[in-house]
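Consider the following input, taken from an annotated entry for Eex (Escherichia coli).
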Amino acid sequence: MKKYLLFALPFFVVGCSEEVKSVDWWGQHLTEAKQKQAECEKSGSDSQNCKNVKQALLIPPHNDAPVPTFD
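Applying the prediction step yields:
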């Protein structure tokens, strides 16, 4: 019985992890990114999502930047 438990345990652990979101996704969802950053700072986590959030918040948003014309 213990052998089966030890075999199945890694699958449960992998299934419980959160979905990793890209830097671009966090950059497009700044409200969620700021919440996640606060959560990461509070917990001290160094997960991939925390790294992506930190990088996304360092990149300034250019959503409303004027597009240059070369006339």
